[in-house]
Amino acid sequence: MTQVREIILIDDGWKHMKQGIATLRRILADEPDVSFNSESYMALYTTIYNMCTQKAPHDYSEQLYDKYKEALDEYITTTVLPSMREKHGEFLLRELVLRWKNHKVMIKWLSRFFHYLDRYFISRRSLPSLKSVGWESFKTLVFDEFKATVTTVVIAMIDEDREGQIIDRALVKNVLDVYIELSQDPSGSDSGLKLYSQDFQDAFQQGTIDYYSKKAQTWIMEDTCPEYMLKAEESLQKEKERVGHYLHSSTEPILMEAAQGELLAKNIDRILNKENSGCKVLLRDEKDDDLSRMFRLFSRIKDGLPPVSQTFKEHVNEAGKSLLKQAIDAAASKKNDKKDVVSALELDYVRKILDLHDKYMAYVISCFQNHTLFHKALKEAFEVVCNKDVAGCTCAELFASYCDSILKKGGIEKLSDEAIEENLDKVVKILTYISDKDLFIEFHRKKLGRRLLFDKSGNDEQERSLLSKLKQYFGGQFTSKMEGMLTDMTVAKDNQSRYEKHIESNPKLHPSVDLSVQVLTTGFWPTYKSSDINLPSEMVKCVEVFKEFYQTVTKHRKMNWIFSLGNCQVVGKFDAKPIELIVTTYQGALLLLFNEAERLSFSEIVTQLNLSQDDTVRVLHSLSCAKYKILNKEPSGRTISPKDVFEFNQKFTDKMRRIKVPLPPSDEKKKIIDDVNKDRRFAIDASLVRIMKSRKIMTHQNLVAECVEQLSRMFKPDIKMIKRRIEDLITREYLERDKDAANSYRYLA
Predict the structure, then answer these.
(1) Of 258, 287, 303, which one is at a domain's C-terminal end?
(2) Which residues, in sequence order, are CB contacts of 732 under 8 Å at separation 6+?
(3) Of 93, 131, 645, 658, which is least surrounded by CB within 10 A?
């Protein structure tokens, strides 16, 4: 026979359960010798099981679900709340942690007793789980009553921690874990940290703002800029560590934003411009560590770096302008001295500019971690300084002269090969800041030509190295002609070797004078002044012999002789001793006239040489009024006039047996600038035509803007010049004014 299970009524069953709950409460109260054994546990579980599996109307699942919550609420109301209401401060926190721990134990045991209820009744009815009901009970009855007080106590303890006092960090962490656990869904689904965020984090954020607002005001008044930044950095580091000690990781960005906002963002101007210790003072005093700290701090906050980079830019600008003023003052004070002294001062200015750039580039790389804002600030500051004239010289000319001084033999700068390479790198970097790059290229090309033609270049490899650097930065159009010049010199040496072999193999052709000729390509080299000078017969024969030789090499090239660049060696037979004179071709030709005549007037010399009066004056001045008076002049004086008469100075002597008679340098600067302006007109014309050919119709403003943008890599075009070139193109019928649209142009195919 099947045994019939006895019906358990709700009152009887719950009476048994209340005894088990009472035992559980005694266990939580730490009473000795109280525990559940397996028999008592199974008896309680079986009671719930039987009451839930009885047939209606004796299925008490719903009533048991309600009584489960009543049991928890009754325990909290009679035991937990009275105990907590007696506690204050840290004792309240400890009581909260203890009661939450006990509450979780109670829920754990009750959930075991009521397990069958959780498995079937709750899941079928889609009701909150027993654990969820238990947590909600604690939250509603305990947490909601004490959360404001607990939050205040926790924030006060954290402020004590910030002040360096010792606090119970484990206690703070345990309390905040209560917030976090109550924020989460016990069922395991992700419900976020709403409770932690609303009831603690928001108040903690405001507390942090209040704390650091007061600290910032005190520190900014009492401390220097470096001291303030040191305290701020230490505080921010400790806040970050604080998150690891007892805060949830999600608090870190909110906490750091609050602290950084008060310590840095709201006081950025006061920190940077702090009297006697602000950013400019740190730059002036070269405080690398403090500048690095400043960058680290202000890079943390939004829009923190632009004010720092602006201050950096202003400081660099002031330092550059100070160097500029020193150079201008030094040049003005030396204006009556020799020209080469002024040149040395100008080159010294270039060296100082290079050193200044190195110094602040080091700051950008090390202190400011190569940040683009600071690269831009450095660039803009040097663009201002490097486009100012010094004593009438543009920076383009100065840097060309500096390159000349380190690349030519016997220059002012005497450097090792490594130092030369390093300096060339620095110069090319600075050139990126100069707007008139085409002017630098033209000055450099002129000086390169003189170095090559007069064998003054120290090293061909270094010349090519500089061209390679320029090509890399500015493009092949900048360097193609100069590369051709270097190639020409190599070819010229080969031609000279073949000419010498040709003379050796044909002794009858040998002129009485040794001749060295450099055949160059006109398109590569700067334009040089040429004159149809009447050469002495000795020189004429040399020229004719070389012409005949070169005709055998090529018949398709026309030779144009540039005698103004030539030089020669003549022997002056003076009374004291013969002296070898190293002179230019013009000087040599003039001196040889005195082999045929003892005295010659200015007009006779002009006629016989077929030279211009200006060139004749320069040559005669070098021979009769300068250091070496090879010729006597009547009347004597320091200037040459058309009425002067000259004769060979037989009494001239010098301690040297070989002397070089220099020719006064002609002012080539104006010609170079004129040539550059001419090239610029062509470049503007070409740019305007290119733009209009592709666009067909454009407004004046857009056309000018695009033209400036296209040409800015080479030079900064003058707006007035662009307007004049547009008018010229209209006159030449490349463009016309658009009849339908005002202030617009149309391209004419």
Answers:
(1) 303
(2) none
(3) 658
What token pair was written down for 192? 């976020």
Instruction: Specify the number of domains making up the chain.
Output: 5
Q: Are residues 110 and 140 in the same domain?
A: yes
- What region does 188 belong to: left with phi over 0, alpha with psi -120 to 50, or beta? left
CB 482 within 8 A of CB 460: no
Give the pLDDT means over successive 10-residue stretches in the chain (749 positions): 67 83 84 82 84 79 85 90 92 93 89 82 83 89 92 94 93 92 68 80 92 94 93 93 90 92 92 89 92 93 92 93 87 59 72 92 93 94 89 85 84 76 90 88 88 82 89 85 88 86 78 81 83 82 84 81 86 89 89 87 88 87 86 85 88 88 78 85 91 89 91 87 90 86 82
Q: CA torsion 246→251→257→263, rounded to 10°?
A: -20
CA 675 to chain centre: 35
The answer to the question of residue 230 being in a domain is yes
Residue 287, phi-psi category: left (phi > 0), alpha (psi -120 to 50), beta (remainder): beta
Residue 683 inside a domain? The answer is yes
Is the separation of the CB atoms in 439 and 673 below 8 Å? yes
- DSSP, residue by residue, 357-381: HHHHHHIIIIISTT-HHHHHHHHHH
- In terms of domains, do 375 and 470 share one? yes
pTM, to two decimals: 0.79
Assess whether 631 and 676 both reside in one domain.
no
CB 378 within 8 A of CB 364: yes
Tell me what pLDDT residue 28 has.
84
Residue at token pair 């009701």: 127
- Residue 644 CA to residue 152 CA, distance in Å, equals 107
The domain containing residue 120 runs over which residues?
A: 10-145
